[in-house]
Amino acid sequence: MLPVHPRKVVVIITESALEPQLVKDVRRLGAQGYTIADVRGGGKHGDRDNDWERDRNIRMEVVCDEPTADAIARHMRETHAPHWAMTILLGDIGVLRPEKF
Questions:
Q1: Three-point CA angle 44, 45, 46, nearest 5°
Q2: Residues near 60 by beta carbon (within 8 Å), at least 6 away in sequence
């Protein structure tokens, strides 16, 4: 079996208008990298189908160590979540190339 190294993943699903600020925030808070994708879905506040520019959502994923994940999640919850449609997920993962994270 390959050696697996523990890391955290922070997933942020939010409005696309927030993307430039999120990128600045996660880099400032210690993330070495991130992945962003356009997404759509629905929930108790309605559906987001990405038909209109103002309806677009993104999903940002950051793989990092636990202190960085905690700082990112805390910042998002305190700074952006009260003002934007935002879902924040945290999870445990294993990586094969720990030097990247």
A1: 95
A2: 10, 11, 12, 13, 14, 19, 22, 26, 34, 35, 36
- pTM assigned to the model: 0.88
Instruction: Tell which CATH classification among 3.30.110.30, 3.30.70.330, 3.30.70.120, 3.30.70.580 matches the domain 5-100.
Output: 3.30.70.120
Q: Per-domain residue ranges for the chain? A: 5-100
pLDDT attached to residue 97? 93
Q: What angle do CA 35, 77, 70 make, to 5 degrees?
A: 65
The stretch 70-86 carries a mean pLDDT of 97
Angle at 88 between CA 73 and CA 2, to 5 degrees: 80
* Higher per-residue pLDDT: 94 or 41: 94
